[in-house]
Design brief:
The chain is mainly alpha-helical. It contains six helices and two strands. The protein is globular and about 50 Å long.
Length: about 130
């Protein structure tokens, strides 16, 4: 495993909340295979200090990753990437959450956001035909 901390960057000017930026970036590292099952994440305090966030913000990101089944928190062993194979559905759910957050931040209505997704799916479908 590489240095996770070096891979995480938080943009304070982004419309995406900092906890979501951290969550998304870690989820992306897992989906890309840069973090593997059993890899240990930095402690909440260490990551918070390294990226300049409050510990509660990083803890919220870790809790969201745990709720999504991507990491497991162990009191003595720290937070580790969950064992087992991460399915395409988990990766897509992560991307969907990121899209929903960005769409909301951009002020898009739910209907308009869904229209964009439908158009993208149609474009992909026509490319594979």
């Amino acid at each position: 495993m590489g240095d996770v901390t070096a891979e995480i960057a938080v943009d304070p000017d982004s419309s995406v909340p900092p906890f979501e930026q951290v969550r998304t970036q870690i989820a992306d590292l897992i989906a890309a295979g840069r973090l593997l099952p059993g890899d240990r994440l930095p402690t909440v305090r260490a990551l918070a200090a390294d990226v300049g966030l409050a510990s509660n913000t990083v803890a919220r990101a870790y809790k969201a990753l745990e709720a999504g089944g991507l990491v497991e928190a162990h009191s003595r062993a720290g937070t580790r990437v969950a064992n087992g194979q991460h399915t395409a559905e988990v990766a897509l759910a992560t991307l969907a959450t990121s899209f929903a957050t960005a769409a909301h931040g951009a002020g898009l209505s739910e209907a308009r956001a869904l229209d964009l997704v439908r158009a993208a799916l149609r474009a992909q479908s026509s490319r594979s035909d």
